[in-house]
TrEMBL record:
The lineage of its organism: Bacteria, Bacillati, Bacillota, Bacilli, Lactobacillales. This is MFS transporter. Keywords: Membrane, Transmembrane, Transmembrane helix, Transport. It is found in: Cell membrane. One of its GO terms (molecular function) is transmembrane transporter activity. The keyword Transport applies. It is a multi-pass membrane protein. Its main location: membrane. Pfam families: MFS_1. One of its GO terms (cellular component) is plasma membrane. Residues 11-461 form the Major facilitator superfamily (MFS) profile domain. The chain crosses the membrane at residues 12-33, 53-72, 84-104, 110-128, 140-163, 169-190, 202-221, 227-248, 268-289, 301-323, 335-354, 360-386, 398-420, 440-456. Coiled coil: none annotated.
Amino acid sequence: MNTNTKKISAKVIAAIVATGLMSFCGVIVETSMNVTFSILMREFSITTNQVQWMTSIYLLLVAIIVPLSAILKSSYRTKTLFTVASLFFIGGIIIDALAPSFWLLLVGRAIQGIGTGIALPLMFNIIMEQVPTGKIGFMMGIGNLITGVAPAIGPTFGGIIASKLNWRWVFYLLIPLLIISFLLGEWGITQKSPIEKQQIDIFSMLMIVFMFCGFVTGFSNLGSQPFMTFSVGGALLIGILGMGLFAWRSLILEEPILQLRLFRNKNFSGHVLGFFLTQLISLGFAFLLPNYIQLVNGNSAMIAGLIVLPAGFAGAIFAPLGGRILDKFGARKPILIGTSLCLIALIAFTIYGQHLTSTFIALVYILYMGGMGMCMGCVMTSALTVIGKEKQSQGNAILNTLQQFAGAIGTSLVAMIVAANQSHLNVVRRVSTAIGTQEAFGMLTVFCIIIWISYYRSVKK
């Protein structure tokens, strides 16, 4: 049967929605809890550096587990992995909803990180393995739509819950969604690939832990502490050493945790570079815009969430549209069109960076998120296509690992630029924040130019 006309079974759709919903819940918790940090600091009598670990501990565990995804997929049934991930995530959510202390709250977040780390690559593995070739682009777009809405509604959801109910309801309200996800997954997930047990190399695993512990700690403290301290420079050095030793070990092993030899494929490397920098830019935006709206324009956190909300929906809508274009015309068109829209938006933000009105932010951010939505699913599809079907789970593991790495450094880079201007410029905070934001947008624009060139050279059709 023609792969363009072959239908996607109801079970495959249920499996994609189930795994997508769990990733959606993971992002919702992360983005909505950011709004409640000041409340948590008062309630548990903790500092800004301590409360940041609500995000950092979660990202750290996700980053450590995700590189194992290819080995886990090969060694265990997909449904078993999904069941374990669901139980971890639901268990972590319940612990956080009831947590009497901040440290127990962190335990719950760590357990959620393990669940998300297992679940995150499952959706894309299922799509690449079980969806007919002619519909892969569209379904990757649908998958990105499910997870893409979460960063947009997270801050608004968190702000409404925190002001109308209590921060614990962020966790309570996700339990029904997670139960629906669990039931859909248990019914819909079927095994297509053979099981072949693989050993996890302990040395490589330790180097992954050193790498991400070092980078997450170092970049988390970069804006608040001097570079020449153990918690910044020392932590980053540990991260670099861990990364170097992990790369060395991966290249001498026949079956490494991450197949770094895939980077010898120049087209794959070009896709990965663009994917990594796009994630970094998006996380930079997530920090810069809400802070600008509040500190420069003097609006509330709730208003900040509402201003960026339409852009999130634009990104979610454009994701399946980009997938449709890929299925009909190939990946090059939606990727280059989407990246061009992102670049235009970044240039506009850079030029007018010191005088951004709320209307301007809302409209230009829609342009950026629409472009990003159009190209991101297509980039993943194209990247996994150029390395061949048998290496796709390894490619997926690399993409998802780099996504977490971008998460560890994206916010810190732009926060450092804004903080440097706030502390060194002899002007009022509102003006120094605007100048710092403009400089950060300039850096992100340079990254976007690199992305466009990288995709132009590596996406062939």
